[in-house]
Amino acid sequence: MTEFVRHSTTTSETDVTPTSSSASTPRAVRGAVLLALATVALSACASNAAQDTWQPAGPDAQKIHNLQWPIFLIAGIVGVIVFAAVMFCVVRFKDRGQPIPEQSHGKTWLEIIFIIIPAVMLAAIAVPTVATVMALNKTDDADCIINVTGNQWWWEFDYPVDANGMICGYMPAGEAAPIVTSGQVVIPVDATVVIRGTSRDVIHSFWIPKLNGKRDMVPGRVHTWRLEASQAGLFAGQCAEFCGLSHANMRMEVAALQPDDFQTWLDNQLEPYAAPAEGTLAATGEQTFIAQCARCHQIDGLTDTEGELVISSPEQFVYSGAAPNLTNFATRNTFAGASWDLLNEDCRQDVWDASPEEFGEKYLAGVTVDCLNEIDLKEWLRDAPAKKPMYTDPALLDDTNGMTRGMPNLELSEDQINELVAYLLERK
Amino acid sequence: MALIERTQTPAFVPATPSSSYGVFRRPVETTGWKSWAFTIDHKKLGIMYGVAAFVFFLIGGLEALMIRAQLAGPEGTVLSADVYNQMFTMHATTMVFLFVMPMVAAFANYMVPLQIGARDVAFPRINAFGFWCFLFGGIFINTSWILGGAADGGWFMYAPNSSVPFSPTNGIDFWGMGLQITGIASLTGAINLIVTIINMRAPGMTLMKMPIFTWMTLVVQFLLLFAIPVITVALFLLMFQRVFDASFFSVEMGADPLLWQHLFWIFGHPEVYILVLPSFGIVSEVLPVFSKKPLFGYPLVVFSGAAIGFVGWGVWAHHMFASGLGPISVAVFAVSTMAIAIPTGVKIVNWVMTMWGGKLRFTVAMMFAIGLIVQFTIGGLSGVTHSVAPSDTQQTDTYYIVAHFHYVIFGGAVLGLFAGFYYWWPKIFGKMLSERIGMWNFWMMIVGMNLTFGPMHIIGLQGQPRRMYQHTTARNGDGFFNITFWNAVSSVGSLVLGIGVLIFVWNIYHSHRKHGPAPLDPWDARSLEWMTTSPPKEHNFDVIPTVGHLDEFFHRKYEDRGTGDHHDFVQVATAEEIMAEQEANAEQHIHLPSPSYWPILLALGLPIMTYGVIFSFWLIAVGGLVVLLSMFGWALEPHTATAADYDPPPATGTELEVVSHD
Amino acid sequence: MFTTGSKLLIGSALASAVFAAVYGITQGGTLGTIGLVSAAVGLGLLAAINAFVRDANVSAMDHEAFANAAGAQATARRSLWPLLMGLGVTTVTLGLVTTRAFFMVGMIAIFASAVEWMIQGWSEKASADPAYNARARDVMVDPVELPVAAAAGAGVVVYSFSRIMLGLPTKTSTVMAFAAAAILVLAVAAFVGYRKVSKPTLTGAFSIVAVALVAGGSFAGLNGERETHAHETAVDLAAEGNCGAEETEADEHASQTVAAQSNVVAEVLFDGSSLHADVVGFDGDFTELTLARSNPSNLIFRNESSGHARLVLELHPDEEAEEPGPEQVCTALVEPGGAQLMTVRLGRSSLALTAGGGENYALVVPGSDASLEVIVP
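Predict the joint structure of the above. Result:
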C-alpha cells in the first residue's frame, strides 16, 4: 500500500460538518433548555396537594418517606456527578485540532472501581429496603380490621364484628352488627388498622398516599395492608390500578377520628332506622326510594307499607352484584365513588382545613341542609351515566346478561328527585 | 390404394421457449413497486421497516398529543373516557410494538450484515416474511379504530378487565391477535439475525472483534427469542378467554388473575431491554467515532449487555410490587432490580470515559448520543428509586412512573435511534442530512421531552395516578405551581416535542432536495459498514473483507507509528483508496438469493384469518387457504430464479453482474 | 405462457369470485351471491376452454406456424386422469343407487381428474420440449396439489386411526396406541440404521400400512364407537344434590392437594367434631365466617380429622326466584390431611335469607354435627 502525507484535517471534516457554526446556531434554544431545567429545579411544587406522597401523615407513610428521601438525594447526587462529567468532556475535549488520542480500550482497575462503587451503594440501599418491606407487611399487631371491596367504580367498606362483639377494637353501645359503608372509610387515630381487601370485578388498587403506599385489590384474593393515621383529618385517595371506563372517577377518602369521636361515629352508625315523620317531603321520598332505588341500594331497617323489611337484590341488576349501602348516607361527605362532594364548597373547605382538634366535631356533623351540595347530587339523580361514564346503555349489556356496570338513568321526575334528596339527607 | 402422405416438415429442432410461465415468473424486477413488494434484500427490507415504523411513530405521536390535549387542563373534555382509554392503550402499543421494535429491526436488518461483512442475512425470504407480518399486523391492529373501537384495557391488558364483560367491543381481540402477528415478525427476525451473526461473520471477525451494535443486537435477539413465546402464550390464553369462553382468568371459577400479570411481565420486562439495548449499541458506535477513540472498556460493555440480558429475566415482579405478592417475593425482586442497575451504570460510565480524553466533534448524531447519556441517566436514577419497593408502592401507577419510563424509552431508545438516523443516513441513502436543521431538531426534541416528561415527576409524586381521563382541581393542590400548572406545561412540551419530530421530517425532505451525494466516509468512521459504497451495492461488498481488528476500517485507514508505550496514529489511506482497491479486486460470480412472491402473500393470509376470528369464520378458511398455498409455493420454489424468469434472460444468466462503481 | 384472452377471462373469473365472497360476507344477500358465484363459475369455464385452445391463434393458413405450433409436435404423455374420471363416473352412478358417500367420492374424483386433466392438456401444448412442459405443469399444480393431497392423506390417516382407537375397548386402545408409536419409532430407527432398504420395499411397506389403516378405519367406523363413560365432577355432585358423606365417583378422581392458590379469604379447618376458620388478616380461630356479598371468594378446606370429610355450603336458594339455583355447593371428599378449594359467590345477603325466618348460609360437614355460620353483610 502506498504511503502519503495527510493534511491535518481529514476529508470528512472539511466536507461535511461545519461543526462550530452549526452548534452555535441554536444557542438561543440551548439557553432555553438551561432556563427550563433551572425552572424545574428551583420552582416550588404544588402546596397542599391532597395526594402528595411526600407529606406522610401516618407511621407507615413515614417509614416509606424515611426510606425514599435519602435515595432521592443519592440519586440526585449521582445524577449531578454524571452530568458534570459529561459537561466536562464536552467543554474540555472538544476537537480543537489536538492529535488523535490513544486507541486504548481503558484500564481494568478503573473499570473494577466503577463496578464496585454502584454495587456498594445499592447494597447499602437494599438493607433498609428489605427491612421496610417486612415492616409494612406486618399484620399480627392489628387493633382494627376493616374489609375493603373494590367495585366498578366505587369502594365498599365493611366493619366485621369480632368474636368479642367488638367492631374495629371498639365496643358498640348497642347491639353489634356489621357496618357497611362506601366512599369514605372512618378509622381511629393512632390505631393499627389492617384492611383486608378484595374486588368484585376487576383489579383495583387501594391508595391513600398520606397514610401508606398502594395495594392492589384482586378478585379472588384477599390482600392485607396497613392503614395508620397519626392525626385526625381527611386523607384523599384514588384507585390506582386501571379498572376500566371510569377509573378516573373511583376515589376514596379516609376520615381519621379521635377515639371518643370514633366511638360516637360507631354508635351512630348502629342506631336503628328512623323513619321520616309522616307527611313530610322525606316520607314521600321513602316510598320513592323503595320504588326506585331499593332494588339495588340497601338501607338497613327500612320497611315497606306492610312492615316487611326491604331487602335489595343488586345481584340481579348490577354485574358486580353490589351497590353502595345508603343506611347512613348523610354521615359521609361524598357520593358516587367519592367523585363528588355532598358538602358545598364552603362547608367542604371548612372540614378539610379543620385543625385536628376541631375536625372530629365538624366531620360528625355530617351533611346538613345548609351545607348540601344540591347541584351535583341532583344532577347525579337526574342522569347518573351522563355525569360519570358507566356501562348502562342496553346495547352494550349483551355480554353481562343485561346487567349494568354502574347506575343507570332512572328518569326520575324533578319532584321525585327533591323527595329523594330530602329523604337521603335524613339518613344519619 | 393411393397412399396419401403428408409432407414432412424439414428437420425440426424442438426449441425451449424463451418466455416463462406467465404469472408464475419470479419477480426479478430491480425497479418499480415490485422490486420493493417482493424483495428479500436485507437493505430494502431495512428501509421499509424504517419507513413503516416511522409512520407508526407519527401515528403514536398523534395519539400522545391527543392525550396531552385532553389532560392540558382539569376536567378535560377533548376526548370521552372511552376514547381516552383506547388512546392511551394504542399509544403505548403503537410506540412499543409498532415503532421502537420495528425501528430497531430496521437498523439491525440494514446494519448487521454490513457490520459483519456478509452479503445478506441467513434466511432472506423469512426476513421478508417477518417484515410483512409486522406491517400487516400493525395495520390490522389500527383498523380496529374504524371497526368498532380500539383496545381499551391498557397495553398491559390486565385480566380480568380484558375479559368480554368488561370490554365488550372487539378492540382487545384486534389487539391480541394483531400482536400475535407482529410477534411472528419478531420471532422469525430473532432466529434469522442470531443465525446470521453466529454463522456469517467475515473471516477473522471473532466475537470480541464484532462491532458493539451487532453485539447488542445479538443480545436483544436472544431476549426476543425467549420473550416472544411467553407473550404468545399469554395472548393465546386471552384469545381463548375472549373468543372461546375459556376460563383462564374467570375468578368465579377459581382462576387467579395474577397469572396474566406474571406472564405479561416475564415478557414485558425483557421487552424494556429489547427496546433500549439496540440504542445503547448505536450510541456505542457513535460516541467512539466522534471522539476518535475506541469504546472504553469494550469487553465490559459487551459483558454488561449480556448481563442485562440474563438478569433482565429475574426482575419482572418489580412491576407488581403493589400486586400483593407477599413480602418475600417483593424483597427478592427489589434486590435483583437493584442488581441490574449495576451493568446499566457500567454502560453510562463507559460512554463518559469514551469521551474522556477524546477529540470530540459535535455533529447531530453525537449530540443525540450525548443527549441519550444525560436523559437516560435521569430515567435510570428514577428507576433506582422504585427498585426500593416500599417507595415504589407510592410511585407505581402514578405519573412518576410515566416520567420514568419515558426518560428511559424516549431518552434512551428514541434518542439513540435518532443518533442512528443522523449517523447512518448517508450510508443508507447516500445523502447527508442537514446538520443545521438537525441541530434544531435535536434541541427542540430535548426541550420538548424535558418539558413534557420532566413535570410528570412532580405530578406523580404529588399524587396523580396514570390512565385517568381527567384530573380534577380538587386534588391538584394550591399555589401557582400546582398539578394543574404542571399538566399544562407538559401539554405545551408535547407540542414542542411534536414540532421537533416534524423538523426531522422537514430535514429529510430538504436534504434530499438540496444535497448532492454524500462522501464515502463522512464521519471518519471505524466499522465495516463504511467500507462500501453509500448506499451499498446489492451485494454489499465487492470483496468480503478479512478482519484483523475491532474497528477494522479505522485500522485500515490509520497506522500506529509510535514505539513502545508511545502511540502516534497517522492516516495512511482514505476511504476512497480502500474502496478503489476493493473494486479492483472485486469477486466475480457473486451469488444472491432471488426475490419471491410468497413471503408477502403468506403474511397477507394471517390478518385475513384473524379478521375471520372476529367477524366471520368463513374468512378464516379464505385466509387459511392463502397461507397454505403460499407455504407450499414457498417450499417448492427454487432458491434462485431460473433463467426463464428473466424476460428476456440476462446475458450473464442469473448471477448478478458485478459492475465497477465510480 | 397464458394468452391475452385467457388472462382476461381468468382475471374476470377471479374478480367475480372475490366480489362474490365480499358481497356474501358484507351484504349477506343470497341472490346476489348466487349470481356472482355463477358468473365466476361460468367465466372460469370459459377461461379454461380458452386457455386450452390458446385463443385459437394458430392459423391453419400459416404454414410456418403450423410447422412450429406446439400442438403439431407435442407428444401426449401418459395420463392417469381418464382412468380416475371413469372411476368417478362409475362411483357417482353407484352412489345414486346406494349411499350418498359414494356419490360424494365420485364427484370429488370427477372434479379432481377434470382439473388435472385440463392442466396436463394445457401444459402439453406449451412447447415442443416435454421437459419444459412437465415443469410448467408442476409449477402450475404443485402448490395446490401437494397441500390438498397432504391434507387429504393426513385426514385419512387421522380419521382411520381415530376410528380404530375409538372402536377398541379403552385398555386395548391404549396398548395399541403405544404399540403403534413404538413400531413407528422402531421402523424409523431401522430405516436410519440400514439405509439400503430398497424403494419398492419401502413403498410396499407403506402401502400395506395404508391399506391396513384404511381397512381397519372403515371397519371400525361402520362398527361404531365404544361406549364412553363420563366422569362426574364436584360440580355435578352439587347439581344432583349428592353432597353426602358417602364416597362417589367424582371423589375417587379428586386431587387431594390445592395448587397455586394464595391469599384466599379463609382456610376452613375440620378437626373431626367442629369447623373453624382461619381468616386472612385476623388472629385466632373463628366460629363464624364473613364473606363479602357477590364476591368470588376462595376457601381452602383442610381435613385435620382422622376420617374422610367433605365441606358443604348450604345455600338456601330463593324458592320464588325463576331459577333458584343449586341447594348447596360442595368439595370432593377429602382424605385425612388433604385439602380442597371451594370458590363461591353469594349474591344475596344473609338478611335476605333470615328476614322471612329462613336459615342463614352455613358450612357443614355431612356425617358430623360440625357447622360454621356464614354471614354475608
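Residues 1-23, 652-662 of chain B have pLDDT under 50 and may be disordered.
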